[in-house]
Amino acid sequence: MLSKPTIRIFMLIAKEVTREYRSGDQQIAVLRDVSFSIPQGSFVAIVGPSGSGKTTLLGLLAGLDTPTRGQVILDGSDLTKMSENERARLRGEKVGFVFQSFQLIPTLTARENIQVPLELQGADGAAARADDLLERIGLKARGHHFPMQLSGGEQQRVAIARAFANNPRILFADEPTGNLDAATGARVFELLESLNRESGSTIVLVTHDAMLAQRASRTIRLADGAVVGDTEATA
Amino acid sequence: MTSLPPASAYNGRASFRQLAGLTWRESRSARRRLLLYMSAISLGVAALVAIDSFADNVTRSVREQSRALLGGDISFSSNRPYTAEQNAFLDTLAIKNGATYAHVVTFPSMALVPRSGGTRLVQVRAVSANYPFYGEITTEPAGRWSMLKTAPVALVDPSLLVSLNAHVGDSITLGLGRFVIAATLKDVPGSAGVAEIIGPRVFIPERYLPETQLLVFGSTADYGVLAKLPNKANPDKIIGPERPKLEKMQLRARTVTQSEENTTEAIKQLSQFIGIVGLVALLLGGVGVASGVRAFVARKIDTVAILRCLGASSGQVLAMYVAQAAAMGLIGSIAGAALGVAVQFGLPSVFKDFLPVDVTVTLEPAAILTGIAIGGWIALIFSLRPLLALRNVSPLQTLRRDADSEVLRMRWNDIPRVAVNVALALSVVAIALLRASTVRQGLSISGATFAVIGVLTLSAVLLSWLSRKALREHWPYVIRQGVANLYRPANQTQSVILSLGFGAFLITTLVLVQSNLLKQFNIKVDKSNANLVFFDIQEDQFLPVDSMVRSSGKVLQTAPIVTMRIASINDRSVEQIIGDARARITADSLARAQRGEKPLTGEERRDAQRNAPNGPGGRQQQAGRPGWALRRDYRSTYRDKLTSSEKIVQGKWFSAAAQHGDTGEVSFEKDVADELHIKLGDVITWDVQGVQIASRVTSLREVTWARFEPNFFAVFSPRSLRDAPKQFVLLADVRGTPKVAALQRDIVKRFPNVSSVDLSLVQQTVEKILRKVSTAIRFMALFSLAMGIPVLFSAVAATRRDRIREGVLLKTLGATRGQIMKILLAEYALLGILGSLTGMVLAIGGGWAITHYVFDNDFSPALGSAVAIAGAMLGLTVAIGLLAGRDVFRETPMSALREG
User: Fold this and answer.
1) What pLDDT shows up at residue B621?
2) Which residues, 6+ apart, have CB-to-CB distance to A211 below 8 Å?
3) B36-68 as b/e: b if 16+ CB within 10 A
4) Residue A223: its pLDDT value, please?
């Protein structure tokens, strides 16, 4: 008797994604024919040595850039067929970001930084939501502080709270612990995981930290702009 | 762990309130910086608001006090006693329109206070008992004006008492008349301080005028009649139809409306000039704003990239920053307007001596709002250009940061960019048209602005190209690096050359125009030894006056004066010539009306007359001759030699034959000959007190009027006028104040009608006025220079981050402070030299154009000032550049490199 097939809904599909840059007279391919699919709710790590094209791939998957060739489909929307403003709207609705250098807006307080994605989407109750998230990340008392008044770990926690503010369907994290010491990094990552568990978001993590990558359910390995490995973690 | 609350329901896009809130919060740290950039326009707005408000204040004050200024509804005047025909005209007007009349005869005379022995040239005003109809003349002690109705008293300016060492109650002698000084004048409507300093006023009753016996043959006097009309009568309607008759009778008539126009004309011209300076300052401010906002935009790249990552559209991002810039521009303009209002309150005291009315200072909402609107718009449109680049900031910059210049690069044919450029150009044209007095002037100002920007841009391109070509391998490293900075990617050559050159151009033009205007007043008293001038000397008084003067000092020059009018030019009478002109203007107006065009304004009409073609027939030329030059009294002289203050520019001085021919020869002053369209060989017939004398124009002279010497529009060959009735003017050199005072006193006692002026007093007065004007000009120049500083700062700030990053990198690689400073010095010195020199050369062209076309004056480039300004701008550029270098050493290599 055949087992009932499981229906896998893909949150992200990359089809033969190639990204080339012009350098003088030469075309340099940073990514070549990269293809994979990421089901909804997964936690995928993209790893590889420096210069392998990890960050370029993340930019393409998140719709921050467009491929020279190939297709990126995010939650059913083909990013390659969308204008920059349409992609921005999609990001605002469905995508969260966590960056290595935190990328908080220096002129806004921690609380205001968390509010931004909600306000850009025209959501009501942005302030209440920000307060709630501040409480969740343990920084309720520091909501009125500006980024420069916070430590690195605190800034990244605010960045994570901001990433989850609009309940994203997918979260992209670029070396989220790269600028933090090991202990702080570990605590921040735990926070990321815990919030993700509650929201059920898909996570795409770019890292060269093998320990961090081990915590993902799947690891895609890049080298010289091509996928050289794609392994599921054994439970 | 508690579960996350659900995200609220999205409505798709941020509401206005949400976006405004985000904009407000995001602007937190940028407000001060943006406001600093926007302050570049504050001074321009301040100038506009101050001068417009002040001009409005003056105009309104003149309107309110116009009847008091004139003293009646209509003022008639003539420089001769009224003829029977003129009196009959006034009688008819009185019967037809119910006019009543008051009289005032004004003339210069010597005043003597017998008790102190002091003498002084004064302006006598002999007034009838009912003078003036409107306005109140106040005295000290109060209420003494009415004494003029009953007694032989004099009311005098306070300055006269000081200079004559007299006081109220003393007697004062005017000619053969003696008056008691009853009071000093406190407030007389229509008085301007300067006139009062040169000739203090003495009011006496008209009925005692004959006793003075001052008004003799050839005396200079103005016979005024003030008319008061019944309440609802319109003076312009009554006088309008009578104009031809009045002109024929040579009786001048002014109504309240004309008086208002005449009084406000000068202040309008002044406000227009300062208004143009303000506009130019505003445009310079606009350039500063653009540079400053470029720097601001570079700082915002990271934030914009994050916002784009978080879902902000390019429109939302642009809207946020445009709103920030607009709000700060508005605040900058409001601050400028507030400064302008403060200045406005101070202006009446500065111009007190030159104003005929007491100016009531009130806030002028129209001027304030216009200033704010123009300033706000300039700030917005100039900042829009760099802000547009923010649309291009990719969210990818959060992951991988490119150089600022790369991120902000815009295509030349980017449609919004082209649209903003067009809007900017149109705004400059529109504002120039709004401020200028004529369309031509407005188009010239905006055309010149674009031409200057074009030439500066070209210079910048040329400098980049030249520095690339000229660079040599064997040059020291720091020089090579500095020169290479001028052409490499992300260079600041264009922005600095444009800001610096534009600033240097504006400031130098302003200073050159001002120094050329001021040159007119630069009276060279030192060239003449004369310190005393006697005039109104009758023929029979000449010899005794001459010998009295010789007994105290030297007689330097004497000149006979013959009063005359032009009767005809080339056998066409003055009436015919004026008739031709009127017919031409009427035909022209009809043609314009048929074409559906607006009638010409007064100024345009004057322009048209000035530019009338000088065809050979003469008829067309005559049509353009201004009435005043045809109808005026000419006080001419005759002599056989040129004086040191004149030179022949066309024709020849009188020939020997001129002494014997039937038609005499006359030499005309060039400017008045131009006004009259007179050329060499023309025959002018003069009416010399009833006798017709013909003369042929044989030479044209250029006269230096700004000398204390008697100069004349028409100088005749001696034979032509020798027998005509005349009076004399005599220039003397008498040393020592007591000697001067004694001579003046002796002459006035023996010949009361002879007036004299102590030129050293005049010189002091002129110097006092010049000092005020010079102070005003120095202030304007400093103001302009002050404008240049924030603009230059903004220009350098635009690329400051790139500079610091590079500097820190060089430092990391081992460059010393001295090396980095030398690199910066080479770069900024080259930028400074080219920018300020280009600006200076352009300014000489601009200064010439303005002096020549707008002010109708000769231009001489004040190279000293121009070079000094260029030097100051160069120094400023280098200083600002080196200040950026100082920041390089404040940054740690890590912080700067991490940022990059």
Assistant:
1) 38
2) none
3) bbbbbbbbbbbbbbbbbbbbbbbbbbbbebbbb
4) 93
**Among B583, B477, B578, which Cα is nearest to B822's?**
B477
Which of B764 and B214 is assigned the larger pLDDT? B214
Interchain contact, B398 vs A91, CB within 8 Å: no
Which residue ranges form the domains of chain A, and what is each CATH number?
A: 41-66+83-232 (3.40.50.300)
List CB contacts (< 8 A) between B18 and chain A.
119-120, 122, 126
Q: Is A24 left (phi over 0), alpha (psi -120 to 50) or beta?
A: left
A64 and B26 within 8 Å at the Cβ level: the answer is no
Helix (H) or strand (E) holding B254: strand B252-255
Q: What is the predicted pLDDT for the residue at A16?
A: 95
Query: What average pLDDT does the segment A190-209 reach?
Result: 87
In A41-80, the residues whose Cβ lies within 8 Å of chain B are 55, 58-59, 62, 64-65
B48 within 8 A of B432, measured Cβ to Cβ:
no
Contact list in B for residue A207 (CB cut-off 8 A) is none
Cα separation values, B256 from B55, B118, B237, B263, B865, Å: 19, 39, 12, 10, 44
> With contact defined as beta carbons under 8 Å apart, do B109 and B214 qualify?
yes
For residue A221, how many other CB atoms are within 10 A of its CB?
18
Query: What DSSP assignment string belongs to B532-557?
Result: EEEEEEEHHHHHHHHHHHHHHSEEEE
Q: Which residue of A64, A107, A122 is in closest CB contact with B15?
A: A122
Distance of alpha carbon A24 from alpha carbon B34, whole angstroms: 38
Query: Do the interacting molecules here have an ipTM over 0.85?
Result: no
Mark yes or no for CB contact A167/B6 under 8 Å.
yes
Average pLDDT score over chain A: 87
Tell if the CB–CB gap between B309 and A103 is shorter than 8 Å. yes
Question: Distance (Å, rounded) from C-alpha B417 to C-alpha B392?
Answer: 12
Q: What average pLDDT does range B676-684 have in this prediction?
A: 88
Tell if the CB–CB gap between B12 and A121 is shorter than 8 Å: yes
Name the phi and psi angles at B457, rounded to 5: -60, -45
- Structure token pair of residue B172: 């004062």
Sorted by where each begins, the domain ranges of chain B are 13-62+267-437, 74-232, 458-525+761-900, 554-598+607-733
Q: Measured between CA atoms, how close is B315 to chain A, in angstroms? A: 8
Whose tokens are 């990321």? That residue is A192
Task: Return phi, psi of residue B392, to 5°.
Answer: -85, -5
Nearest chain A residue to B1 by CA: give it: A136
Residues of B engaging A, defined by a Cβ cutoff of 8 Å: 1-15, 18-19, 21-22, 25-30, 302-303, 305-316, 394-396, 398-400
Can you tell me the mean pLDDT for B759-763?
74
- Tell me which chain A residues have a C-beta less than 8 angstroms from the C-beta of B9: 123-124
Residue B431 and residue B285: Cα distance in Å, rounded?
14
The C-alpha of A3 sits at a distance from chain B's nearest C-alpha, in angstroms, of 35
Q: Which of B268, B237, B231 is nearest to B253 (CA)?
A: B237
A132 touches chain B (CB under 8 A): yes
Is residue B256 a contact partner of residue B66, using CB atoms and an 8 Å limit? yes
Q: Note the pLDDT of residue A11.
A: 92
Determine the residue of chain B that is closest to A93 in CA distance. Answer: B311
Interchain CB contacts (distance < 8 Å): A and B: 137
Of A64, A133, A167, the CB nearest to B309: A64
CA distances from B839 to B450, B492, B497, B835, B836 (A): 13, 17, 9, 6, 5
User: What residues in A contact B28, CB-CB < 8 Å?
Assistant: 107-108
Mean pLDDT in chain B? 80
Q: Which of residues 99-118 of A touch B (CB under 8 A)?
A: 99, 103-109, 112, 116-118
Report whether pLDDT(A90) > 50.
yes
